[in-house]
Amino acid sequence: MRDCSRVFGSRVYLEPKTPRPVKKGDVILTSMPFAHAFSCNYLSMYCDACAVPLRERILQPCGGCRVVWYCSDECREDSQTWHRLECLVLKRRKHNPPNSFVRLLARVIFRLREGGDRYVEKYCEKGARRFRDLMNHYADLKTCEDMKPEIDKTLTELRHYIGERNLPNDSDLLGIFGRTLVNCFSFMDKNLLSIGCAVYLAASIFDNNCTPNCFVTFSGLKVEVRSLINMPDLDLAKCYISYTDVISTSAARREVLYKGWFFLCECKTCLDEERAKYENSIKCEHIHCISNNARSMWTPQQLMWN
Predict the structure, then answer these.
(1) Domain segments of the chain: what residues?
(2) Where does the MYND-type domain lie (predicted)?
(3) What is the pTM of this model?
């Protein structure tokens, strides 16, 4: 809402919101993970609580499972919110832990069991999100035959990992799966190498645009959303990030977005047919060539079967 209101007697006076100008590169939002999980290859290379790397500080394994590592007693204590229940099941799989997404799902379930459904993260003065506010694409997941084998495989692995008694009912489980899947970020180190995945409540408010005006960076586990342009007045509803690699072709981006986020992108960049022609062609070396031979964009039907 762009205006604030004050009531005097029976009359309402609109009070304009004070503009918040933003410069290119400014941080417009920060968020800490609701749940996170390091990739298996990096479990012993980063503190599980603060993500400080092994090269900067000595790490010690958890005394219970010996799978996750910590840089200090403080970090070990802070991590008990999510690791206390996880430790018991992870101990059985210490030589062969599940992949990061399965462990992320388990952490989400454990956190919700411990009251995480009441946790609220603010993204502006008057706006906040809970886990239940995230989109779950329940209907899409139930009807998407292409994804069914992967969903079944993931949930079967989850059952083997934490046990049936730790799982919610099937309907709630699919809702948790959907919210985690479509709101999952890959968090990165200083070299832009993906080292794990996480769910951020506040940062999940941003929609996709293939010509974004914001971008995402990471400082440890904290995600920072920064502006790519100067804005006379910050309006989060008009801020966009790219869910995919912006240098990919329109067809490739649309395929990834359709299969991963269940929508066919219709942003200006993806619908630019002239741009698409050049994306799928190379310049002829003949200076008099007038050929315009380029591959056309995929249709929604083609996307569904590729």
Answers:
(1) 27-241, 250-304
(2) 47-87
(3) 0.85
Q: What is the DSSP string of 40-57?
A: GGGTTTB-TTT--BTTTS
291 pLDDT band, cuts 50/70/90, is low
β-bridge mates for residue 187, sequence order: 196
Q: Which pair of tokens denotes residue 6?
A: 């004050």
Per DSSP, helices labelled H in the chain are: 73-78, 80-90, 100-113, 138-143, 148-162, 170-182, 250-261, 273-279, 300-304
How do residues 55-98 score in pLDDT, each as one tens digit?
999 999 999 999 999 999 999 999 988 899 999 999 999 899 99
Side-chain half-sphere CA neighbours of 107 within 13 A: 25
**How many Å apart are CA 135 and CA 201, to the nearest integer?**
11
- What is the spatial distance between Cα 32 and Cα 223, in angstroms, rounded to a whole number? 7
| DSSP letter string, 246-273 | TTS-HHHHHHHHHHHHS-----TTTT-H
Q: What are phi and psi of 192, to 5 degrees?
A: 65, 30
Give Cα separations from 288 to 274, 292, 295 (angstroms): 20, 12, 21
Sign of CA dihedral 222, 227, 232, 237: negative
